[in-house]
TrEMBL record:
It comes from Desulfofustis limnaeus. It is a multi-pass membrane protein. SUPFAM superfamilies: (Trans)glycosidases (SSF51445), Nucleotide-diphospho-sugar transferases (SSF53448). GO terms for molecular function: transferase activity. This is Glycosyl transferase. Residues 465-664 form the Glycosyltransferase 2-like domain. The lineage of its organism: Bacteria, Pseudomonadati, Thermodesulfobacteriota, Desulfobulbia, Desulfobulbales. The chain crosses the membrane at residues 266-286, 298-318, 324-346, 632-658, 670-692, 781-803. The gene is ndvB_1. InterPro entries: GH, Glyco_trans_2-like, Glycosyltr_2/OpgH_subfam, Nucleotide-diphossugar_trans. PANTHER family: BETA-(1-3)-GLUCOSYL TRANSFERASE (PTHR43867:SF4), CELLULOSE SYNTHASE CATALYTIC SUBUNIT A [UDP-FORMING] (PTHR43867).
Amino acid sequence: MRPWNDPAKQNLPSESEIDADLQMLAGKTNAIRVYSVAGSQQHVPFLARQYGLNVTLGAWIGPDLEANEEQIETVIRLAQQYYQNVIRVIIGNEALLREEVTIDQLQAYLDRVRDALDIPVSTAEPWHIWDTNRELADHVDFVATHILPYWEGIHVDRAVDYVIDRYEHLNRTFPGKDIVIAEVGWPSNGRIRQDAVASVANQAAFLRRFLRQAEELGYVYYIMEAFDQPWKRTLEGAVGAYWGVFDADRRAKFPFTSPIVNVPKWHLLAGISVLLALIVSGLLLIDSQRLSKRGRSFLAVIAFFAASCTVWIVYSYTRQYMTISSLIIGVLLIVGLSGVLLVLLAEAHEWAEALWGSVGRRSDQPAAAGDGPPPKVSIHVPAYNEPPEMLIETLNALANLDYPNYEVIVMDNNTRDPEVWQPVAAHCRTLGARFRFFHEDRLPGFKAGALNYALARTAPDVAVVAVIDSDYVVDRQWLRDLVPHFNRPRVAIVQAPQDYRDDRENLFKSMCFAEYRGFFCIGMVTRNERNAIIQHGTMTMVRRTVLEDIGGWAQWCITEDAELGLRIFERGYEAVYVPQSYGKGLMPDNFVDFKKQRYRWAYGAIQIMRHHARALFQPHCSRLSHGQRYHFLAGWLPWLADSVNLLFTLAALCWSVLMIHAPARFEPPLILISLIPISFFIFKLAKMFYLYQRRVDASLTKTLASAVAGLSLTHTIAKAVLFGFVTRNLPFFRTPKKAGCSTFRYALQAAREEGLMAIALLLAIHGVIVAQGTQSPDLKFWTVVLLIQAIPYLAAVAVSFIATGRSIPTRLLEGFSEPLSSDSQVLAKQAYAPLHRESTHKV
C-alpha cells in the first residue's frame, strides 16, 4: 500500500505500483507474503514470478461470508494457475484473534482449500491462539504463527530470545508440524508498550539479531513488513504505520551493516536548539544589568531547556505520517506549546528577578518638601450597602490620621435601605467639617461612578486624591509617610499594598490571606522596579491634576483602578509602590464571593487588554516603556493560560472518551506532549514554594494553603478570560463584607461546576486504565496529566467546604511572620537585605 491507499475503502495500489515494489524487493528476499487477493493484488503471483520471488498467497477471512467465498475461490484459482512460485496458502489472518469467525467455520474453509490444492495450507494466528486452540492443527499442513515481542512489551534486548522460546514451545506442542513464523518484526515509531520501545535503532537491532539467529537455526520466517503502511493507523493505532523495513516513500530506514544513528540529523537539531536558546536568552536578558550572574545563568538554562524541548517535540511530531487531522493537531500543538513556553519564560523571569535582581534601582525616597504647608489630600470612600458599623470604624480611623490637611468624602451610591446609610451620614456630621457624606439613589457607573462623583465635589485646593475601600482601617502615619512622594513632579500614583485584619477568623480566610500575599510581596515589588505596578483601588493615591486631565475613572471597566493606572503610565508618569501595610480591610466571607472577586479581576484584565491593545502592542501609540508593556502582558499571561488550560481539559476529556470506546484507534498522546503540562505544573509549584519561603517568609503549610486557594480559582479565572474575549460589559460585582458563612449545601452549589469537572476527570482516568491498562509509559503519563488537570477542580471543592466551617482552627497555618507589618520597617528591605546589605531604603 502507498500512503494514499486504504483497503478498507477499496483504494488499492495499481498494477504498476505493485510491480515497482516487487522490483525493489528482488534480490533482497526470496519470498513474499500477501494477505488478500482483492482487486489489483491478484496480479502479485504473476508479477513476482518475473523477479524470481516465491509467494505465500493469502485469503482475507472476515464476518462477510460472501467476501470470504470470493477470496477462497480466487486463492484456489491463482494457486493452481501460478503453481511455479505460489509455495503456500494462508486462509485467514488473525480471524480467530479478532473473533470474526468461529473455529468451526475456519476449519471448514481450511479443509476445503486443502482438498483443492497440492501445496501446504494453513491459517495465521499469534502463537497464543495456536496454544489455546490446539485442535486447529489437525486442519492445517503447517503452523503459521505471529511472534511479535513488541506487542508483548518485551525489551528489545530480550526480544530475539523470546521469539526463539515461543517457536520452540510451538515445536514441542505440535510435533510433526512445520512451524513457519508468518510475522516477526519491530516498529520504528509509535508508543511504548511496557519495556518495548518503538524506534529505528531498536528495529535495526532486533532485525539484525533475529536474522542472524534464524539463519543459524534454519527457521522459515517472514519479516513484518516490507513497507510502512499509514492506513493501518486506523486498526492498530499510530504504531501500525511503522513496521516496514522501508518507509512509505520506499526509502530504507537503516543499513543492515553499518552503525545506526537513532537521530540522523542530530547535528542540525542541536544547532537549531542552540540558536533558538540564544535568541530566547537575549530576549530574557534585556534590561538585566542589575541581575546577578546566578540569575542570568538561571535564565540561560531555562532558555536552553525550553528551546531543546521545543525542537525535540516538533521533530518527533513531524516524523509521523501526516493526515489532515494530524496536521490540524500539529498546528494546535505548536500554538499551545508556544503559549506554555511564553508563560514558562515569564514565570522564570519573575523567579530570577525576585531572587537575584537588584531591588531599589528606582529610588523610593520621597523628594524633599518645599516651603509651605503639606499638600491637601481628599480621601474618597465609595460605599454601597455596607454594614454601617464597619464603615463607621473606617471613618474613625480616618479621623485619627496624623496629617494636618485632608478631607474625607463618603459617597454612598444606590443603597436603598435608609437604615443602612443614614447612621453613617449622621456619624460623619459628628466627625466635623472635613467629613462630607453624599448619597444618591440612582447613580450609574458602579464604583467608578461613585469616585467620579466624589472627584467632582472635591475641594478646589486638593492636590492628591486618595481612595480606600469602605472596610479599611488605616494607619495614622499613612498620609504623613506617603504623600511626600508627590514632591517629585513625575509621580502620579503612590500605592500601598492591600492587607487584611480578619485572616485568623477561620481557616478559609487564612488560606485566602496566604494566597493574596504573593502578589503584594513578590509581584508588585518586582514590577515597581520598572515603574509598572498594578494600581488597585484601595490604599492608593493619585495626583489630582493627572486624574482630571485623563478624564477620571473609567465607568466602562469593572476594574477601573488597574485601567486608570495603565492610562496614567501611557502619559509617561511614574508610580511608587511602598511595600508596607498602612491599612487593613476584610476578605470575602465565603467561597462564592472569593470566586466572584477573582472573576471580576480577570474579566476586567481582558477588558483593559482589549481596550488598550494599541498602546500595549504598538510602541508608537503611547509612552509606555518596554518594561511596562512586558509586565502588563506577562502579568496577564497566567490568566490567559488558565483559559487555554480549560479548553485543553475539555479536549483531554473528549480524547479520553475516544480512548475508552475505541482503544485500538485512539492512543494516548506522545509522552513528550504529556510532559508539557506535567513539567509546567511542577515548575510553577516549585517556583511558588521556593519564592514563598524565601521572599514571603511563609511556612511550608502556609505556602501549601496558598497553592490550594490559588488553584481553586483556576476554573473561575478561565471562564472570566474566555467570556472577556466574547463579551464587552459585565455588571460590576461588589465583594460583600460580613456576609456570613455558607452552609454545607451552599458549598456544594458554590463548587458544582468544579465538582462535576473533577468527577469527569477521575472517571476518565478510571475508564482509560480499564480500557487500555497502564502497561505503557505513555498511558501512565496520560493518566498523570488527567490527574493534574483534576487537581484545581478538587481544590475548589475542598476550599468551598473549608469555607463552610467557621470553627475550623487556623493554627495549622501559623508559624510565619506578618507579611505586611504596620511598623516602620519596609517589607522589601526585610526580604532583600541578605542580598543587598549595602542598600538602605526608608519611607
